[in-house]
Structure formats: C-alpha cells, structure tokens
Amino acid sequence: MKFSTSDWTMLRIRCQKCRQHTEKIVTVLVRKDAIPCTHCGARISLSTPTNKILIAETVASCDRIGETLIKELALDGRLVTLGDGGSGSPHGR
Predict the structure, then answer these.
(1) Number of H helices, E strands in the chain
(2) What is the pTM of this model?
C-alpha cells in the first residue's frame, strides 16, 4: 500500500509581490503551475527553481514518512488491510 502524508502537509510559499506567505496542501501544489496569493491575489509561480525544489523535497519527505508509518503499523499489527470487511483485523478476518 502506498501512503504519503502529502494530503496532510501544508507548505508556505512566499508571494513575490506582497512578500506574504500563502499556505496550500502539498498535493495541491504538485498539480499546479501557479497559485493565487491569498493576500493580494497575485500569481505565485510554482515553477521557479526554488519553489520546484521546495515542493519536490517536501513530497519526498512526505513519502518517506508515509512509508515509515506503514511499516511501523504493520510491525505493531495495527495495519488494517483493505477488504477486511470492516472487521478491524490486521489479517482481514
């Protein structure tokens, strides 16, 4: 099972026009080329070298954290597999 914490992680991107930060969930940033500033409405490019690195490294970190969480849950026996019928059993019974 692939799991990432990207759906829960907020990233702050600075607007070049007003210098304020706009926060978005990482999965939103990955899918876009630009976002509007929440303060002044200016276009914030996500394709600048700095923003590309920031987003890529954050996604990679979220993926690593997700993998670690899944491994820990599996080792603890608390990982519920899909298709267990809602039994809550880590073995689907």
Answers:
(1) 2, 4
(2) 0.70
